[in-house]
Amino acid sequence: MRKTVVFVAAAVIGATMLTGSVMAQSTGPSTSPAPSAPAGSVQLNVNTAINQTLVNKYVRDAPNVALAKCEGPSPKFSSPVLTFANYTPGPFMGADANISADVELKPGTAAGSYPLTVACGGQTYTTQFTVPASQVAKVPSGAAKAGDGSMAG
């Protein structure tokens, strides 16, 4: 019984492969477009590409990273309110990127929306990111400070 099942399965697979190759030969030239060059992208993210709620949002007091996917030598990030350091080629924690750089917000940057650009291989990719207002810009006058003894009684 097993030999019959194996023989029938092999015959069906062989016939399918033969039909597929005949079909492929009989369709003529391919009408599908040639694959295009890989698309580029750029984004700002707090220390992990996994938390998608933080994409293109600068997080104060946390490590932020610029990520890009682009082809070409010497990729370069730019933004009027960010500085970039430690350019690192290769994938970054599951993000669709092949270059990353550490990001620092320039002192005195106001809350708002700003551009982030990467240039490489003659191409430029730009996105907008937001800098939220800091939750506590200044410690209130007379507020207790941890460890200063003001709460001791």
Notes on the protein architecture:
This protein has 153 residues and is α+β, with helices and mostly antiparallel strands. Helix content is 16%, strand content 31%. It contains one helix and seven strands. The chain has one helix at residues 2-26, and strands at 41-46, 64-69, 76-78, 82-89, 99-105, 112-120, 123-131. Strands 1-2-5-4 form a four-stranded antiparallel β-sheet, with no helix packed on it. A three-stranded antiparallel β-sheet has the order 3-6-7, with no helix packed on it. Strand 6 and strand 7 form a beta hairpin. The radius of gyration is 28 Å and the shape is elongated. The chain starts with a helix and ends in a 22-residue tail after the last strand.
What secondary-structure arrangement, pairings included, does this model have?
Blueprint: H1 2-26, E1 41-46, E2 64-69, E3 76-78, E4 82-89, E5 99-105, E6 112-120, E7 123-131
Antiparallel strand pairs: 1-2, 2-5, 3-6, 4-5, 6-7
β content, as a range?
25-35%
Mean of residue pLDDT values: 73
Contiguous helical run count: 1
- Helix-strand pattern: HEEEEEEE
Please state the CA-atom Rg, rounded to the nearest Å: 28 Å
Give the CA-CA distance, first to last residue: 90 Å
The outline comes out as elongated
Number of strands: 7
Main β-sheet description: 4 strands, antiparallel
Helix content: 10-25%
